[in-house]
Amino acid sequence: MHNIFPKMAENTPNTLVESAQESDATYDHVIKYTGLFGGVQGITMLVSVARNKIVSEFLGPAGLALITLFSNVVKLINQSTNFGISFSAVKHVAELFDHGTEEEVKNFVRTVRTLCLLTGMLGVLICLVLCRQISIWTFENADYTWHIAALSLMVGMLTVQGGEMAILKGMKQLKKVALIAVFGAVATLVICTPIYYFWRIEGIVCSLVLSNAVVLAIHLYYSNKVMSWRISMSFKQECINGIPMLKLGLGYIVAGIFGQGAEYIIRTLIFRFGELADVGLYTSGYTLAVSYANLVFVAFEADYFPRLSAAQHDPRRMNKTINQQIEVGVLLMTPLLTLFVLAMPVLVPLLFSSKFVDAVPMATCASFYVLFKAFTLPTAYLALAKGDSRMYMITELVYDIFIAAAIPLAFKWWGLEGAGWALSVAGCLDMVVIHIVYSISYGYRQDWSKIKLYVAQVLCFTVAVWTALHEDPRMRLVTAAMLIISGTISFIVLKNETQIIPKIKKRLWRK
After folding, report:
1. In angstroms, rounded to a whole number, what is the distance separating the alpha carbons of residues 484 and 504?
2. Do 220 and 134 have their domain in common?
3. Can you give the pLDDT at residue 24?
4. Are residues 317 and 232 in the same domain?
5. What pTM value is reported for the model?
6. Which residue range is the domain that position 434 belongs to?
7. Which end of the chain is more exposed for a tag (fewer CB within 10 A), N or C?
């Protein structure tokens, strides 16, 4: 524990030093940790790209669809039974780590692990009981009953993984979080490749269970280095100790059920309106437009949520933290999304295969969703930082109901491209609702001094998407011009507001 609590000796015994100072909330701090986790997520993305390439070559759209449907089922049950501990524990562990005693941290970590074990077992049991019915709901037959029963092990593993990750984030062990992400991604690729090569679709369940078991072992290895793994046999008392965390987690769990439920409904209805291959094409488009971009947002979240939790009591500091995160997100995401739109025709055959080219228009249309999310996500965390699980739950419910209805209907009427536009419209509506509601409820104030910057970036990206959807190859020159303009704007702003560019130049000059 000496390395975890290095400043305890400088203060009163057993008292931790508050580490979340306002000075941390600088653009350089945001960029630093975004860079750390962005680099990690970049490696993770490359591994994910390789895995998706292997899946598309060996299993095709139908195999990718099957993996997606199985994963959605597992995640839905996990979200329904984990009580949001993987998220709510971060806030409580971070607060104790900053302001509590070492003994209090140890006791609460034990509570987290005990509750994760209990809720994980609950999830496994529920999955086993409902496996036949889930198969019927998803595939309209009971042919996949035993597959889902075997996948029940994943439900428990995901719950325990979430608890260990929450502990590491709350205790500011961000480098270990980064290592887990990298090693977990590589291990998954190493395990899945030979299984898909030799057993094709029949190996999907085996690959999912084995890869998650190895990832769980990696989580436990690193978290055990920080704090030895212990649980309490006094389950009733631990449940009582965890009531504040479970209350906050209630909104997260309900929101998670809505979110995973919406994804499950969307893919099931696309399967009903089309065929299994359509689910694979939608998934590949969603992966390109949303999932890979979400890796950047994961890079934000690992450092951002603890900072926001520490700042939420001070309105000025809270607004500064949110607005800085929004600005950095927009500056980084807009050029990346523009590059992504420009390279889409090349990326799809490269990352998947020529069988997935029909997903290109859908992914291009859906890319607005990611840009809107850069504005929405930093603000959306505010409800959870304040412990207002009800508000978080309501806003997520409104969004999930909309996409669960809009995307399948858009697919039915306009195909995959319509589904992409529906996703972007949902992102825009979510952005508007979150900013209005949170302004009224929490006193959040947008930094209007940045409005010209945001308008310029959004206009660049809008032109880029519009030209990318044209079949004339010459229009790609306009898209490339928008990339140059957007990238230049981001470079100039980051250069003026941070020391990141000079530091990079200094390191390059040394080399």
Report:
1. 20
2. yes
3. 45
4. no
5. 0.68
6. 274-511
7. C
